[in-house]
Amino acid sequence: MPVHNRMRLTCLETAANPYSTVLGPKPTSEQRLNLSQSFNGVGWITGPALGGLLIFGSVGEAETNKFATLTLPYMMIGTLVLLVSIMFMFTKMPEIHEGEFNSHGDKGKYRDLLKYRHFKFAVLTQFLYVAAQTGINSFFINYVTEQMPDFSNEKAAYLLSLGFVFFMVGRFSGSFLMTWFRPNQMLALYAVINVFAMVFVVLGLGWLSLIALYLTYFCMSIMFPTIFALGIKELGD
Description:
There is one protein chain. By secondary structure, the chain is an all-alpha fold. It has ten helices and no strands. The chain has one domain. The protein is globular, with a radius of gyration of 20 Å. It starts with a helix and ends in a 6-residue tail after the last helix.
């Protein structure tokens, strides 16, 4: 995905996530954000599968024009984004005024965020998590084809879609489990499991390493929304 598209999606998500956290009771903000972000798993699942079919599946055409196989996927993405934009234009969203001004009637300053210890740690944690998630997603196909030479890039893309199935299931189940377990405790437990799973991935044990990768997808599912919600909790204005 081009850098400018990533930047736009980053700005959009950063604006939408705090909005989701304040659309209900404060104690369940982490659970609510996890649930709302669970639905993007549909795109994560279908994306690699369609990419494998449309990009890796047209070998002959790709040999004559290396950009030809990218045309249709980007046209589809652009059309879907346009449709979503139109839907939001005609959808009445609740207005949120919580924390607009502090007790003195003044707007908060960005530098005031540095006074909050949990916010600073959340920024660092989110940086490390996104780097780890991007690394896993980016190298998944290469890793599978190297560990299992019989698998083509197209088949590996389908296996990546299966990984996103575990990711989506992890988010839905994680949202459900947060009814009884504290989000920060679940986050810590899932992180420890992922550390041990990565040991098996690094060892390159074939199918066992692939299973460890799928376990990683399941456990990292709740991390981004949970870190985000915990990081902005009780920040006020």
